Amino acid sequence: MAKKVFEEIRGIPDPILEGISNGWITHDAGDYTEHATLEADVAIIGTGAGGGTTAEILAKAGLKVILIEEGPLKSSNDFKMDERQAYKDLYQENAGRMNKDGSMSILQGRCVGGTTVINWTSSFRTPEQTLQYWGENFGTKGVSKDEMAPWFEKMEQRLNIAPWAFAANENNAVLSRGADVLNIPWKVIPRNVAGCWNLGYCGTGCPTNAKQSMLVTTIPSAMDEGSQLLYSARAERLIMDNNKVTGIEITALDKGYRPTGVKLTVKATTVVLAAGGINGPAMMLRSGAPDPKSLIGKRTFLHPTTFSFASFEQEINPYYGAPQSIYSDHFQWDTVDGPVGYKLEVPPLHPALTSVLLMGHGEAQFEELNKLPNLSSMISLLRDGFNDDCQGGSIELASDGSAIIDYSINDYLWEGVKRTHLTMSELQFAAGAKSVRPAHTAAKWEKSWKASKAAINELSYSASRAMVGSAHVMGGMAMGEDLDRCVVDSNGKYHYLDNLYVIDGSVFPTSIGANPQLSIYGMSCRLATGLAEKLTGKKLS
Amino acid sequence: MMNTPIDQALSTTRRGFLQLGLMGTATLALGSTVATLTGCSSPLEKNSEYKFLQANDREFFAALIPVVLNKGFPGELAHDEAIKRTLLALDDLIYTLQYHNRIQMRQLFDALSMAPIRVVAGASWASWKDMSHEQINDFLIGWRDSFIQPKRNGYVALSKLIGICWYAQPESFVSTGYPGPPIKIPTPVSNKSNITYKTSTTSAEHS
Question: Looking at residue B191, what is its pLDDT?
Fold first, then answer.
């Protein structure tokens, strides 16, 4: 019988509540009963990896900053490691976000700190091949490996990023063990943690503040400099005058995420869009921002992610311990722009999320979930956006102005999905799995690699058969000097507005080929430093 | 709280859906017919504790939940309480979905509440509450294995939604063997500052 590793967590100070108590300027938009106008030098829309990083740099450069966040302000006292509460408080659409046809689940953050509050802490520099591809295909400047290295280094130091120094949990050890048997190279994942308790609840908001998310690092630092934070506040549209943004129209939201009926206005001389690859482009489309080539919201990438489950004799306890600590890029870079490459990792398995990933129902699914302590899973992240047959999805607007994520898995990607199932199944058997089942509605538990291989080769690959999810939203506001493909220049400035900058993962012209948080931090650090220097006229060391 | 009209049932949707069905496509083309559907009045009961799920929808889910969850249900709860808990969680989740996917849900539920559409869709003429577990399971399997993508999408959406809403409930943990998370004891914060900002409600909410 599986047992709890920790019974109780107490005595953790809450840095957000302390900051508020010490006089931080925070506004809950839901509290306003009538229109109000807030002002700053720079308004930053979004408080995730891009917005948080930018806020600290601009505030420390002496600029008056206001951070605008659609989600609520939650902090470590609220983080109870409870899927129910976390999905409701911290995730877009209650963790039910889907693509247009409902065949893909998309996990994305929605709170102060954005996805950094709920990600699994994996921190990789943008691969050199990806950076080179951007330069060659999009005219993106200043992003070579050498040019980016100092920015990554800076953010690695800021967020305490280092390879996980402790033993991998059993769930991750399946990957390294299987890889060793098959002679496949693997590595330890660098994580942004300080004093991590190895609990396993990164995905429900770190209860000990060990995860160096924006919520406990750059945002407090920006707030200490006198920045304002406006939350439960949806940036509805930009207010524009000729080629300038003069303000932002804000819709105040109640605790149920619906408009209270009150509108606010934020005025700023410079606006930074950092709302991610879905809500950012949607806000631009709602605003009717100039976009002569209709490129806003195009080239949306998701790292389509596939799953394979394995059952073991021994307990895996896949819900405990650092959720991601082992990876392999063995299948990632055979070619840069040929058949799709993929990164191998492991997901944590808490019961609600697991029930979604298993793709099934009834007695068969009960039998799987009933053995959760002995279950392990592996994932493959497909590197989308590097091939002519893989141009990503697009963001559209519903009639109420909200985003629709039109992303379909085409034959190019399905071919990759099938390969990932084969790879993961072989690795899991090599690691000693008793039986293996890829997350596919027609797949059964097989007891040998040979049987599994034969079965996978017979499966039909199409939407809502194989489980395909995403936890990485990238693109939609491509960065580069090629005006036929890009809307943001290499300094992050929107090509068609004088004082609008885009600083987040939406500027990536392809997917990253790795969990994107450090790519966003590094890029944001570069862009925000450039912006701070431009606005203050001072050179920042 | 402001509801958009789409949170409410749409008689015109039903007609649109019915036409699609009778045209022989046998499709649950989840989308596109809804653009015209504004201004419909709410069929949610007055003072309902639900924000999205109407009586018909709840009847539908109440029938599906035990079949989808099988022996994973009702965990440590009594049957009726477990149904109620799952329904409230489903209501909260679907209500929070953005417009487009909320419409798809509305269409799906509306369509499946009508006997002729149910038959076209591969379920029984009988109302959901009168169907046997076997009938409901056959319907789910039919959709899961269908060649028609919207049916498969429907299967995936329904099974995922029910799963995430139930297995997040602590009373379900007995059926998975999940020992559960540690208990978190929050740390109170004393008010060190005399400055009154516009943040008073924030502090109150968190204290």
Answer: 59
What is the per-residue pLDDT across B32-49, written as a single tens digit (0 to 9) for each? 333 233 333 346 788 899
Under DSSP, the state recorded for A62 is T
Pairing between β-strand B183-184 and β-strand A8-9 as defined by DSSP bridges? parallel
φ, ψ for residue B199 (rounded to 5)?
A: -100, 10
pTM, two decimals, is: 0.94
Helix, coil or strand: residue A521: helix
Nearest CA in chain B to A95: B93
pLDDT tens digits for range B57-109: 999 999 999 999 999 999 999 999 999 999 999 999 999 999 999 999 998 99
- What's the pLDDT at A541? 66
A371 burial level (CB within 10 Å; 0-12, 13-18, 19+)? middle
CA distance A265 to A248: 6
Q: Which residues of B touch A403 (CB under 8 A)?
A: 98
The verdict on a CB contact (< 8 Å) between A20 and B203 is: yes
Which positions in chain A touch B67 (Cβ < 8 Å)?
361-362
Going by C-beta distance under 8 Å and a sequence separation of 6 or more, which residues neighbour residue B155? A441, A464, B140, B143, B144, B146
- Candidates A357, A369, A405, A440: best to mutate against B (most CBs of B within 10 A) is A369
Please report the pLDDT score of residue A5 as a whole number.
84
The torsion defined by the Cα of A21, A26, A29 and A31, in degrees rounded to 10, comes to 30
ipTM of the complex: 0.96
Residue A229: closest CA among B193, B190, B199, B194: B199
Interface touch B70/A404, C-beta < 8 Å:
no
Predicted pLDDT at A311: 98
List, as ranges, residues 67-96 from A with C-beta within 8 Å of B.
Answer: 73, 75, 77-84, 87-88, 93-96
Rounded Cα gap, residues A446 and A426, in angstroms: 11
Q: Give the mean model confidence (pLDDT) for residues B181-200.
A: 69
How far apart, in whole angstroms, are the C-alpha atoms of residue A370 and residue A354?
A: 11
Q: Which two tokens stand for residue A59?
A: 């505030």
Tell me which residues of chain A have a pLDDT lower than 70.
Answer: 541
Segments making up each domain of chain A, as ranges: 23-536
**Beta strands per DSSP E along chain B:** 183-184
A residues 299..328 contacting B (CB < 8 A): 319
Mean pLDDT, residues B149-155 taken together = 94
Do residues B45 and B77 touch, judged by C-beta distance below 8 A? no
CA distance B101 to A143: 37
Cβ A121 vs Cβ B119: under 8 Å: no
The pLDDT assigned to B7 comes to 52
pLDDT surpasses 90 at B192: no
Q: Give percent of chain B with pLDDT exceeding 70.
A: 71
Q: Among partner residues B89, B152, B178, which is closest to A372 by beta-carbon distance?
A: B178
The DSSP call for residue A125 is P
For residue A441, the chain B residues in CB contact (below 8 A) are: 144-145, 152, 155-156
What confidence score (pLDDT) does residue A24 get?
A: 98
Q: What is d(CA B118, CA B127) in angstroms, rounded to the nearest whole number?
A: 9
pLDDT for residue B117 is more than 90? no
Residues A272-305: tens digit of each pLDDT: 999 999 999 999 999 999 999 999 999 999 999 9
Report the topology of domain A23-536: FAD/NAD(P)-binding domain (3.50.50)
Asked if the C-beta of A410 comes within 8 angstroms of chain B's C-beta atoms, the answer is: no
Residue of B nearest to A254 (CA): B1
- Cβ neighbours, 10 Å, residue A35: 11
